[in-house]
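I hope you will forgive my troubling you with a question about protein structure. I am sending you one protein, given as its amino acid sequence and as whole-number tokens for its backbone shapes. Thank you for your consideration; the sequence and its tokens are set out here:
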Amino acid sequence: MGRLPFNPSRMQGPETPAPSHAPARLTVSQLAALIDRALRDGVPAGLKVVGEVGQFRERTHWYFDLKDADAVVSCVMWASAARKAGFVPHTGMQVVVTGRVEHYAKQGRTTFQVERIEPVGEGALDAELRRLVEELRGLGWLDEARKRPLPALPRRVAVITSRTGAALQDVLDTLRRRFPALEVGLVDVRVQGDGAAAEIAAAVHSVGRAHERLGVDVVLVTRGGGSREDLWAFNDRAVAGAIVRCPVPVVAAIGHETDTKLAELVADVRAATPTQAAMRIAPDADALRRQLSSHAGRMAYLAARAVRSRSDELANLIRHMRSGARAAVQARQGRLERASARLERHRPASLHARREAAVEALAVRLRAAAAAIVRDNRVEDAARRMRAAIRGRLARAGESVSTAARSLDLVAPDAVLRRGYSMTIGPGGEVVRSTGDVRPGDTVHTRLADGSFASVVQGGSGAHAPIRSARSAARPARRNGPEQPGLFGGG
């Protein structure tokens, strides 16, 4: 698209000088303002321009040229708009840009400010496919963990393809050759052109919904090669969604080996060609027969070995059971004998005999206890008699002691003195029993019942000469003085 011619007559406003026959003098700023006003008024916003990307520079913002054979326009796409593009353009890529023209006075540059960018032709298809792939990856539809294994021995396969396509014949030939017992159901759909994607998605959905009634346990979505546009129906999001939601495993084989379609990315199994898809679905019957024969031989060998092993185990078990039975019988017999002995002990006659023996033993113990009681009584009587005898003897002994004490009291010196007698102690401390025991001039002490006094022996001759004594003042008797038993003189 070429630039519109500059038309000064469309300029309006006070900043625009009125046309005159003489050229007006303008400053650079005024000229820049004229250019900017002319671009704003003369070039509408929201222009769509087709061109080739040149000198693309990706920074925070995108800077590139948009060119064709005759012109070049500088373009800028701010980061906020670039994030919405869904792809990154490259030099040489054909694009359609949408935006407006801006004039930057300070740089003296006129730039196309891009608000939206889209690839042209195959570039647009690639961008759309990449966008869909990222969207489905975010949904988890491409995760390997989600995908299901194929059945080892499928009963029936539903083939969704065109009845007139070459892919169908390749699939049927391969299935019949590898596994003739496999049943095949065909769902005829358009595989290219308008409405093909909707038919394919509807067919997958219908088969999945009725798979139990139809007996289908695997689905094959396939077609032969073709152009990119021919195969584009298998990049449709509706087809991918139907495959993901199908309750039975889905195998996809679309076009050539180098082309990977969205349907193949979300399928449970992807095959490069329709023939390979059929080989993945149908097991090899010959290989199965060989495998079955090998398994049969292996099973026969294992069965024989198991029989021998079980026979040995059975023999050992029988031996163990017999020995265990004997031990159990012996144990039961022992318990029976002990029970019989207990029953014998508890028979009435045995019980009566044991009770009689117990009564007799008790009687013996009672007799022994009675004898012991009698002995105890005898001992107690003897003890009482002995205590009485001891008390009697003690009483008699006490009386004898009292009598002896009274007798002793009668002859005690003090008692004699109380009866009126006196006791004279010589100068040597001895009791004067005779006049010959003293000499004149000796001082003697006379002790009476109520005291004592000293006297001096005077004169006298012969055995019976009177001896006079000088009386002295009475003094109390010395209780601690020497008291010698002996004869007592008159007072």
